[in-house]
Amino acid sequence: MPQILIKLLAHLQADDLGMPELAALVAQDAGMTGKILTVANSSAYHRNARQVSLEQSMVALGTDMIKTLVISDSVFQTFNSFPNSGATDLRLFWKHSLTAAVLARELARRLGYGQLEEAYLAGLLHNVGRLALLAAAPREYAFNFGARDDDNLCAVEQRTLQITHTEAGAWLVERWQLDSFLADSVLYHHEPSVRLEAAHPLIRIVRVAHVLAIHGDDAALVEDARALCGLGPDEPRELLLQAARQVERTAIQLGIDLAGADAVSVPVAQAPLPPVDPVQQRLSEEVRNLVLVSEVGQVFARQQGSGGEHGLLESMTRSARILFDFESAVVLLENPAGQALVGTPGAVPQRIAEFAIPLARGGALAQSALERRLGFVRRDGAGGRPLSLPEEQLLRLLGAEALVCVPLVAGARCLGVLVGGVRDWQLPACQKRERFLQSFATQAATALETALAERRQARRQLASVAEEYREASRRVVHEVNNPLSIIKNYLSVLDSKLERQEPVGGELSILNEEIDRVSQLVGSLAEIQPDLDAVRDGDRDDGRDALTADVTRVVDDVLRLFRTTNFIPDNVEITVDLAEEGRIEGDPDILKQILVNLVKNAIEALAAGGGRIGIASRGHVARERRLYLELVVSDTGPGLSREVLANLFSAVKSAKEGPHHGLGLSIVHSLVKKLGGHIDCRSGSTGTSFEILLPAHAGAGVPAPSPVRALGSV
Question: Are 236 and 226 in contact (CB under 8 A)?
Fold first, then answer.
């Protein structure tokens, strides 16, 4: 609808609207301004001087004429641009529309209806639905556009287009979202007067205006309309004579040619039956089906992205009901074991969610899934196959007389069956649309397969994340045992010292450190943020900042922990051979955790027969254009078996007791990697040694290149 017309209707409701405000509104439309100036300076209004300004011209015309010109010209400009209107003779159409508009305004005045301009516009638009049908279906409606406007025309429109011009016109007006009964007046202008006796005044006004403008020669209709608005016996004729003069004058002012309009032939509406070419009809149907299937595929793709699997299933059943006239539709999916078709959660009716049909003996519906072909099931068991119990249940659940079973096949797999409930008489039509049903099923199955694959992927990711959390929890529990053992031993030492009243400040300091370490280890659980992609690609941030560790100091701390708590048996000797200056890049607490695990494992390996544990530094090593400090932890124990060596740094079942044993070396390996280093193990009958390369600190103290050993692999 033209914006200037909407604004005009709003402004004309205001009692205090002045000519300057009205002129400012009209000036927004150049064509309208030109029309006003032309009429104001025509012979009918021209007096002494030419009206140059728009406001002066509007004063000369008067408010009523301005309203008529603006409303009429806006409507004509809009609807004359409808498709196919240029190739159609609209003279009689516009004459009837103008006549109805003038009559509606005069009827509104006589009935005391306050919105005269609204009545004028309603009369002008009451048959605009005919233009809309001509624009939408020119070939089907070209003949009936010029037909006599009566109840027979509405019946033919409904039969040929499934919509009448009254419905089309009302739909068009409703899109303008006016706070008015204008759309209702368009919709009901063909209703019999007996139904409109208590209707809104605008509806009754437009009905009477329509009858007088188009059926003024039908005495029975005119008499019926006259009574609807309480007109006197002579008023209809008087109104028509007055309207004829005003329509002629308005048409001249608007530049609309109505000459010869009364001579235009007005045939009776009819619905011709063109000869049907079976081949052409089949081709047209196939093309239409291709377009519909393509559009359905796009709908499924959009729904899959926004509503997930449940939204996709709902979209599938809704589309099937629309496209194939199913009264109801459900999707039964094949269960993971491939033994039955089961309902989906959220299905309607809800009992479908608990419904299941065994594929081994489920009747025609199960056979449809197994053979990947369409199946049709009737309540009366027609076709020689008795109904299975699940089929009878499904017919009752859907309230249907017959079922159309459409298998959803993706590749070589049948994902399930779309089941549509129909009436018996609909089955032949469904059977004729078999190819369309199969194409629809292909699109639906493809979208469903993608949704199911995404669900499986999501479940795998959740399982992976859960496993990662479980593994991290096991590692933390394992590592917490080390400081807890130290704390336990220190408490024993403290007890004996306190009895002897000896100073315990050093022991309390160590206890405090170990308790902090327990707190950090437990707190690390809350900081775990699994990133599957980073884990897979090896791109997770290792958390190494600018921290550095003094290897000698860390080794001293570790040995002090073991010796002070009497953790080292008498038959085990620990020797240390470290360089005077050895610093690495990384967190000293992580290095301490590595050494505690390795020394503890070595002590346990030597516990039975005793032996020696060595912690040594072998200087700096160049590997892959980076400088490392080599640290070795060795023991003279019995060595490791080939089976243990093969899975050395993986979480394996241990001969030790407890749920978390067997994790120590896997934790050591992950901690070394966290520091950006490398670890290897050598083991034989004479003992075991763990050789660790840790990134050397790049600051002072790194020896000159000459003593550095080059190492291809460790």
Answer: yes
What the block records as the tokens of 629 is 């400090």
With CA atoms as reference, report the closest residue to 524 among 482, 472, 464, 486: 472
Residues 330 and 345 sit within 8 Å (Cβ to Cβ) = no
Residue 160: other Cβ atoms inside 10 A: 18
Among the listed residues 178, 143, 150, the one whose alpha carbon sits nearest the alpha carbon of residue 164: 150
3-state secondary structure of 649: coil
In terms of CATH architecture, what is 80-263?
Orthogonal Bundle (1.10)
- Compute the residue count for the chain: 714
Which pairs count as long-range contacts for 589-594, CB under 8 Å and 24+ apart, including other chains? 589/517, 589/520, 590/671, 590/674, 590/675, 591/549, 591/551, 591/554, 591/675, 591/694, 592/554, 592/557, 592/558, 593/479, 593/482, 593/667, 593/671, 594/668, 594/671, 594/672, 594/692
- Report the topology of domain 278-457: Beta-Lactamase (3.30.450)
Query: How many CB atoms neighbour CB 349 within 10 A?
Result: 13
Residues of the chain with CATH 3.30.450.40: 278-457
Q: What is the pLDDT of residues 121-179, one digit of tens each?
A: 899 889 989 988 988 888 888 888 888 888 889 999 998 888 999 999 999 888 877 77
Sign of CA dihedral 527, 530, 535, 541: negative
Per-residue model confidence as pLDDT tens digits over 107-137: 999 999 988 888 888 998 899 899 889 888 8
Alpha carbon dihedral 244, 245, 249, 254, in 10-degree steps, equals: -10
pLDDT for the residue 205: 94
Using alpha carbons, list the distances in angstroms from residue 695 to 89, 583, 594, 669, 701: 92, 9, 15, 15, 14
pTM as predicted: 0.40
State the alpha helices, DSSP H only, in 41-127: 54-61, 63-79, 91-111, 116-125
Q: Where in the chain is the domain with CATH 1.10.3210.10?
A: 80-263
Q: Tokens for 238, please give them.
A: 């008087």
What Å distances lie between residue 624 and 6, 330, 672, 680, 711, CA to CA?
A: 79, 63, 17, 16, 9
Residue 240: how many other CB atoms lie within 10 Å: 16
**What does each C-alpha distance from 606 to 26, 343, 612, 642, 688 come to in angstroms?**
105, 63, 8, 19, 11
DSSP H/E element including 651: none
Helix (H) and strand (E) counts for the chain?
A: 26, 14
Considering the segment(s) 542-710 as one domain, its CATH architecture is: 2-Layer Sandwich (3.30)
Q: What is the mean pLDDT of residues 65-69?
A: 75
Which distant-in-sequence residues (6+ apart) come within 8 Å of 709 by Cβ?
618, 619, 620, 621, 622
Q: Are 359 and 352 a contacting pair, CB within 8 Å?
A: no
* CATH 3.30.565.10 domain locations along the chain: 542-710
Extract the tokens encoding 599.
């020394």
**Would you give the DSSP letter of residue 351?**
G
- Rounded Cα gap, residues 451 and 300, in angstroms: 10
Residue 127's H or E segment, with its range, is none
